[in-house]
Specification:
The protein has helices spanning about 35-40, 60-65, 75-95, 100-105, 110, 115-125, 135-150; strands spanning about 10-15, 20-25. With about 150 residues, it is mainly alpha-helical. The chain has two domains: about 1-25, no CATH class; about 55-150, no CATH class. A two-stranded antiparallel ribbon has the order 1-2. A hairpin with a 5-residue loop joins strand 1 (about 10-15) and strand 2 (about 20-25). Helix 3 (about 75-95) packs across helix 7 (about 135-150) and helix 6 crosses helix 7 (about 135-150). The longest helix is centred in the middle third of the chain and has 19 residues, at about 75-95. The chain is elongated and about 60 Å long.
Amino acid sequence: MSSPGQLGGPAAVTGSAGMPVYQGSRPLPADPAPSAALLRRFPPRLVLASWALSSQPKPQVLARLLAPPFPTGRGNLDQERRRGLTRMLDWLEAQPGESWQDRWITSGADAAGNRAWRGLLADWLAAPGRGPRDPEHVSLLAGRSIMLLT
């Protein structure tokens, strides 16, 4: 068990039989210098405003993400991924922006959070002729297609 105030990885000491004995967690080092040195040596990457693949036209995105190595070889799953990807790109195309990333942000999906963004897609698809209206079906399609887009 850990002692109060101790954090970090497990610590072991040698017991009477010469075997290591678990002693809980090690305290964190008082000197933050090793972390600061690592940050200087390995600084975080810059966040780019956009990149070439985020500006490709929809036919190129579909061709790239529906070609190997992305298909699973399972007919129904691949068909649902294709349908979900097409619907998602249709939705994003209807949003203002110069790139897919811009459109994702202006759609409100990024701000909505991990699962709530699917409701935005479902609301858009609910218009006549756009796609499935069942929220569970939309959520499934969205989940399967977002795996290809991330």
